[in-house]
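pasting for ref
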Amino acid sequence: MRPPYDRDAHPHDDDNGRTQVRHAPAGRDHPGPDGWGGATSSLYDTTDRVAMDRIGVRERTASSTTYVRRPRPDDVSATSAVEALDRGGDSPPGRAGRRAAEPTVRRGQGKHGPMFWRNRPRWLRRLVLLGLLFSVLMIAALVAVVLAFTKVPLPATVNTAEQTSVITYADGRAEIAKIGTVNRTNVPLSQVSVDAQHAVLAAENKNFYSEPGISPKGIARAIWVNLRGGEIAQGGSTITQQYAKNAYLTQERTFSRKFKEIAMAIKIDQQYSKDDVLEFYLNTIYFGRGCYGIEAAAKTYFDKPAKDLTAEEGAVIAGLIRSPNALDPRVTPVAAERRWHEVIDTMVAKGWLDPSRAGPDKKPPVTKERDKSNGLAVSSPQAAYIRDQVKDELIAAGITEQQINLQGLRIQTSIDQGRQTAAYLAVTNVLQKPYAAVPDLRTGLVAVEPSSGRVLAWYGGSIYGKGTNGQTFWEDNVSEAQVPPGSTFKPITLAAALTHGASLNSTYEAPDVLKIPGNAADGSGTYVVHNDEEHGNFGYPNLIKATAESINTVFVPLGITAGIDNVISTARALGVSKDVALTDDAGVTLGRDGITAKNMVAVYSTFANGGKAIPPHLVDRVVDGKGKVIYEGPKRSTNALSASVTADVTYALQSVIKDGTGKAAQLADGRPAAGKTGTTDNFRTAWFCGYVPQLAACVNMFRGDGGVSKATALVGIPGAMSGVYGGGYPAKVWKAFMDGALSGVAPQPFAAPKYVGTVTNASPSPTPEPTVPQLPGPTSTAAASISPTQSRPIPESSPTAGATTPPGPVPATATPKAKQSPNNNNGGNNNNITFPTPFG
């Protein structure tokens, strides 16, 4: 129990109104039972009495004293203080107790809300509340006005073909093609199978019939995400909202568009039944391949009306809605199948499909092949291929197919009309007889401006779709046909070797047949490389001569010495895209992997640009229907090769045209040019790629499937009955195009060679004993094995499929040992592995 309040123990005042404070005797810091005692402290004798009056003692024990601030007289009335004391307070008489010390409400102070709000002036609080009320009323009025004046478009009035996109030449005026003609047929909901209806609901809005036309939760989630991201980028739309958005023909990611969409969705939900809304939606949604509405989609993908679609077929079509191009089974089969399973599983969960028809082992039905024309008429097959490539570039850049089809874009390409005409005339005039005799003959031609990467001419093929000769081709011979480039790949190996210490003036042994000891699939065997049977042994040429004559038995060891991994990385840097599979063994030097002409022209364009790589592109700029530029072609460049190495590669490639395998490509008026021929084994493909400083171009030539089967080899061609070489028709087409494309353009010289690297001499010593034995007989061929006794640098390993070779010089005494990949299967019993032999 606390002792009673002792007023005598409280400090008292002197005659001047100052409070005197007694101090305890030495060694004591609190009053004893008899009070304070002792003299008045001179340190505290000036304490203001007013200040002391505002301090009360709340509690005092033997070891401590608790003080409390007492309220001012104007804070609480004296009567309140007495009443507080009478209620049992234990503060001194005349002073407020514990309850009186609690905060009280000042005049004008608010009674509700956080303290920062209550402490604001009353007029300010009222003004803010009135402003909020006014804002709410304005928003409500705005919503009412928007709802009143919003018209709900019916499917028949939604003109999806209204805004046609136009593709033009580089001048921005002459048209190449148009995009936007719509394939659509409206049908009543009764003409859509119930299974297909359920599939669409499962894919887009499974609770459509039990939920309102808008999803407040989805909208709130989208607004929150978009506010954090700075733009409207995420949906949250019901089927009703999607229909409203499609009716507006806009994909703008803005709050105003979203607000209109919500307002329209509310009105649609009020005016129409769920069946009506679903019918509107199914007749206007985009399903890819240029078709709008489920009836057109059913015929496009399964060649049947919508009323006959099964649940599985409906799930394929419904799965396309999220991303029509990216989920097309013929484009991305893995992603499309994953999406199909998602739709099927949702149908099962909702009770719309028997579980026995679902499961991971089930496969989606097969769709029809893509008719890439979508029924669109174009002026020529070349225009159709350009149109498709334009769409592919824009989709890769993030512009959706629906934007391209609906938003009236003005797409300006880099295609030069004069050079496009030159490409058409070159192929048509040079190959007129071969095309007439061989229906499945295919040729691609692409030309690039090296300094910018702009594609100036694009010949994707002579047939787009079904041709008059009975053949059907949709594959672009420039960007889609991956066929072996043969020896046109060798300059890549040359560039890698020069970068890692080789020199153009180094000499190498060039026998007709080169045997490289290594390991076959069974752990034994020898790699065998052949030259063209027409040439045989080339003696000891330098790299300039080896390039001009395309000598396999020099370039295969050269690639091994440089390091196969370095050859591949050089190819990537020069322009061969990562989606092209390059086999990491010595055969990569011979160009046996399938590569597109677009990739190869990127490589030669980099050579022409002094070693700076710029990705080829067809689209210069895109302007939307409002005149705003929404895309421009890439202008970035990377240093793929040093200028010195590039100058040496170019010098060697000039020898190909001057006095090598590419003499047929010599340009008019002696214009300097560099290039390389390419012919794969069994005449599967024939190539010529070359350049001048202002222009680089590649020509490929093959039949049908690109020579996968022997029946499609380039033999029996008029003018080349025994087989087409790269130095034949492809070189002639290249020359015809370049002469036409460069008409009126002043010649420019190439940079002089720098002769980088260290010169090594592989010539035999002047002794009568030959280092390479000759087989007897007049028809014998020379064979050489890479052995420790040869004087030229020998690689420490020779590759097979899946093997890599460390870069750097190798001691002359090293014997090549091939690293065998477990994936390299050559039959298990082959003792000799023969690389495909490009002839030049």
